[in-house]
Write a structure and sequence with these properties.
Layout lengths: L13 H10 L2 E5 L8 H11 L3 E5 L5 E2 L2 E2 L15 E4 L7 H9 L5 E4 L6 H9 L3 E3 L4 H8 L6
Parallel strand pairs: 1-2, 1-5, 5-6, 6-7
Antiparallel strand pairs: 3-4
Helix pairs in contact: 1-5, 3-4
Length: 151
Amino acid sequence: MQTEADPSLLVHDPDALREILLAARTIAVIGLSASHTRPSHGVASYLKAHGYRIIPVNPHESEVLGERAYPTLREVPPEVTIDLVDVFRRPQEVMPHIEEAIARAGVRCVWLQDGVINWAAARRAHAAGLKVVMDDCTLRRHQQLVGQPVR
């Protein structure tokens, strides 16, 4: 599988990023920690405060931000519609989460957080029809492009 960088696979345009953020209602946060010191917790707290439903996905947590946590995306009940999958994992650990996002009906976008760069995963998600944002922060982009509660 090719691992060369291909920026054409990614969503960069501010208007397209704004559209992704405004269209999403439910965000599965892969690697969401209950620890207030972890970046995933701060980002998810911000997003929840701005009207998004957050679905924690972490096998080491039972509940985060008042929501039941699931060990994998696959184990989130199918009646829960997930629009966006926000990934806080090491780059080499991303591909299984991308495969789960692809397999799940309703997911429209995978968003790999700052420092999470995996071109093979981006290529796979793009080929499956998902929008891909990589090495970027949902909190920062929301502040820049939306700025107020989405509801």
